[in-house]
Amino acid sequence: MGGDLKHLVIVKFKEGVVVDDMKKGLEKLASEIEAVKSFEWGEDMKSEEMLRQGFTHIISMTFSSAEDFTGFLGHPSHVEFSAAFSTAIEKILVFDFPTVVVKASA
Amino acid sequence: MGGDLKHLVIVKFKEGVVVDDMKKGLEKLASEIEAVKSFEWGEDMKSEEMLRQGFTHIISMTFSSAEDFTGFLGHPSHVEFSAAFSTAIEKILVFDFPTVVVKASA
């Protein structure tokens, strides 16, 4: 599990956006592009409002190498999806980092 | 892998904070408290500054159940560490959410 690159995207969607459509687009992306090693998403409903500053959705993808990640960013499906995605979000945070696994799932 | 709860903490440390000490504290916490199912951290060095808004470190823990997570929050070691941690951070985001695994690592 060590050595993976994580692409973590945290967003608040604009009002009126059909979040399910966004999810379907992301699922399609993750299944189409082999370089995506794993993909999880989540919707925050538990933390304190003050601590999440209006952000609601978390998208987390992992890649085995920098090459895989670069390939993903430039993949036509990603480029196309990103264009649609960017019109749907009110605000966004993006983090790209090598993961350091301190305690792994049993 | 499905059904886990994720506790995602994103921070910017204050200037002068010895980040390694924070990491050691977190590692100790994750190893001491059995309820912590997995623990990863990362330091963002790749995304665009504009997209990360000054945040630099990502801490990600998973728990098997809401009970485990609640137990973690109230654990004396967590309470003690949180007090020290909160003095070291300039800003913080916290997200707690059930993870939905769409594509799992092979």
UniProtKB/TrEMBL annotation, chains A, B:
Stress-response A/B barrel domain boundaries: 5-97
Pfam entry (one): Dabb
Family annotation (PROSITE patterns): S_R_A_B_BARREL
Domain of life of the source: Eukaryota
Gene3D superfamilies xref list: 3.30.70.100
PANTHER family referenced in this protein's UniProt entry, alphabetically: EXPRESSED PROTEIN, PTHR33178
Binding partners and assembly: Homodimer.
Protein name: Stress-response A/B barrel domain-containing protein
Organismal lineage: Eukaryota, Viridiplantae, Streptophyta, Embryophyta, Tracheophyta
